[in-house]
């Protein structure tokens, strides 16, 4: 005779109230409305159950049949009736087999829990919170006795429970079991919409959190540059929480949505059909959307209704959808029995984040021996067999629909993958690992008891009296390797340390499919690199012809353009604006154009930066060669004139106007011609220091020589007058002093310039597009113009004095020649200033060189060419008599 143990607690009182409400529900309605009622049966029957005894029981609540019902009414007795068995999900039967297989393996292993046997108790929840609540209370009762909180068999203990995702359905299970601190395992993702983790401390998740999945989806969209997508969410609290979580995450990653479609949750049949018809009116939005990527919150129930919607569209001859479907891990590409013949080609090329799974050795052999005739106590297999193989074990002539009889020898391998898979799915693999997690904890506790007998005797503790709450510490601290070779462990939050596989789904015309692993989402990777993809393995929907599809609001902006906000549209929709001058964009859809580096500039299309051409006046180009040849030619001419003057130095025409000044002037002009060569070639440190300073000092010497010659003419004329005091100023001393003093002033200015802010080699990258101008920076612009101003002052003084002395009697009329030469000189440099300032690059240097050559040539030609003409061509005029005659 069994002994029943009663436990008094707050949870007990709550459970008793629930039980009373369940038992009295039918009778209260009958009495209230005076309806003739038969004695009330169980208002919420559970038809599917699988039990195997053992020392410790692992419970499981599964859902494989949709229990649709009409809207409740108080005009008749409420019922929960099964509309049709064809609404079952045969694929979920593998979750049951995974638990049975794991316990069978453990019990048959003599080296593992040798003195303990594990049993199981599996019940169906039918996707309804009410029945799930009752199934949970059944697990807390002795088998076949619905008396929660009593244990009438000391040999059987409920040690843990395995359930599906934590939705409003399974939140009922978690709420009850948390009061008992019984370990609960979910083999689908945890949904925060139905409670905080703090409310369910006994929960262990066999799948990483959904928020990690969403982050992976955002990285996937970002990888393919899909910024314009469609969102599908079930119309319930889960869908609302999904949208509240995902939309900000997508916005942070530059992704927005074209539409949000709320798929109906599984409710009563009338509402479901009405909502599907309403959604069918929105079907053109799905077809005509420019988004090619659709992100689905892939709850199984929402996927079934979505497939119903697509099936209705196909039957209505509406155009098919050709999109890339991105789904979360809850979807296992499964079908309800009614959808066995529905086309799955619309999901060809879908991408999902799937729970990592492996194949435990012996599982497929275990499936091969599964037969209805051999499965004793299995209350699920008959319904599964009939729905999966579309046959019937019943032989009734009154059946409305005649089905082929089931032989019981059908092969599971012959079923399409949407109905059943012979390889272990991710959900089944999680169930398998959950069973082994409990078994390893029991094994650890058993080993602990064996090694600590003294401690056991002292505390009077026996392994058979183990309570479920005592497993929690070990569950978080006992990692293990399963038979498939994968490491299994939980973190301090009770979440499995694992990632997701990125799976590409390939469908075939016979409704079979293949999974192709194309990537991995690793939670332990470096932030930002959690997602790895093998793009070459991905098979896209057939309409894209294996070309990576675009999912954008508008055509991308090509290189050379940048995105420009479109008024009144979402941030993913934009116009394309040409890059401003001097800027470029070398990628598609750049937010803004950027500047090139200093040594580069945009090409004409403004889509890349090309190296700038370095520009300077070189000896290798025609302009440099011409100017160099001119400078050398004038230098040789000056040297020739100097040689002529030296050779004929004693002739009257050479001695007439102070031959020493003529020598100084000729040497100065020779140096002027040669200094122009400093401006040709690549600017260097030495050449930059010498260019303007040498030019300024040498030209100042030349101009002071001209000024001295002019003053000498004037003084010579004035000295001829009787009693003139000017006679003492006539001679070499005065002329040399004037030349030296004028040159010294310019030298002082140049010395100050070099000591304070000397010229240096520099580059100009902004004056000419695409060209780096190599030049000499003056250092101090004020000093540069001071040098030029001083030369201008000397030129003006020389011109003024020469102009005033142009009519003085002179045998060779040198004052007139000096006047004309200074007129040429001043004209050249007056034209030089605006021309110099209006040109850029090497042409500025060319203008300066030309001005130096032209002004120097003007002095040389106007002053010395008449004298050379007389010396060479008219030597008879170069004598004292002619000079005296001219003077008289």
Description of the structure:
This protein folds into 3 domains: 5-71 and 83-207 and 360-488, Rossmann fold, CATH 3.40.50.2300; 561-608, no CATH class; 622-887, Up-down Bundle (Rhopdopsin 7-helix transmembrane proteins). The longest helix has 35 residues, at 685-719. The chain starts with a strand and ends with a helix. Helix content is 42%, strand content 14%. By secondary structure, it is α/β, with parallel strands linked by helices. The protein is rod-shaped and about 155 Å long. An 8-stranded mixed beta sheet has the order 10-9-11-12-13-18-19-20, with helices on both faces. A 6-stranded mixed beta sheet has the order 2-4-3-6-7-8, sandwiched between helices. A 3-stranded mixed beta sheet has the order 27-29-28. Strand 6 (157-163), helix 4 (168-180) and strand 7 form a beta-alpha-beta unit.
Short note summarizing the structure:
Helix content is 42%, strand content 14%.
